[in-house]
Design goal:
alpha/beta; Rossmann fold; six-stranded parallel β-sheet; 9 helices; globular
Length: 204
């Protein structure tokens, strides 16, 4: 996705939901870049809300930038209640997978398998023990960030920014989230794209 496409999409949506997330292994040299980029987005598009999963690394850096501008426009979708609670501003919205209706979890499980069939067995046996349950919750959380849930007034995402592992961008939970976006026609942009946009290079 290029910058003009992004700008048109956001400006034509009454309240766009922008995912901001990526790898936990964010190089220290890029932390400030993500913070500034997120803050710039929040400043330029005051009608947008931003959604993250509250993981360390990229999620945390993006969230910091949004929080500096307006923490009330930051949404956290969590695998379980009080997940890394100390990093969440009291003015931000948060909802945990464990607080959602069973029907929401079942739908998320179905969409997870559609996007990442390799997790079919894990999802089918997610209640077999604590370890399986924990792994499944993080995957389901990643799916929920994208598809939302009408039952909880959580709309589907409009588009997503990712900071990915360049050697293997489709690895792990980040890769799964990208696949969910692609499955549902939600535009995505990786850092090698958005780092060259005018709002990053100060050409706008």
């Amino acid at each position: 996705m290029d910058y003009p496409t992004f700008r048109e999409l956001v400006e034509e949506t009454s309240q766009p939901v922008i995912l901001v997330e990526g790898t936990r292994n964010l190089p220290e040299s890029d932390v400030d870049l993500l913070v500034k980029f997120a803050a710039r987005l929040a400043t330029l598009y005051p009608h947008a809300v931003f959604r993250t999963g509250n993981a360390k690394g990229s999620d945390e850096a993006f969230a910091k930038g949004i929080r500096e501008v307006d923490p009330s426009r930051l949404q956290y979708v969590l695998p379980y209640a009080r997940h890394r609670q100390k990093s969440i501003d009291v003015h931000s919205f948060q909802i945990a997978l464990t607080d959602m209706p069973d029907a929401v979890e079942e739908r998320a499980a179905d969409r997870t398998v559609q996007s990442s069939p390799q997790y079919k067995e894990l999802l089918a046996n997610r209640n077999a023990g604590p370890q399986m349950q924990a792994k499944a919750r993080y995957l389901l959380r990643d799916t929920m960030k994208v598809i939302g849930a009408a039952e909880t007034a959580l709309p589907q995402a409009t588009m997503a920014f990712f900071y990915v592992n360049r050697e293997d961008p489709m690895k792990g939970g980040t890769g799964h989230t990208i696949r969910v976006c692609q499955k549902h026609g939600i535009p995505v942009a990786f850092q090698d794209e958005w780092m060259g946009w005018p709002i990053v290079t100060d050409r706008e």
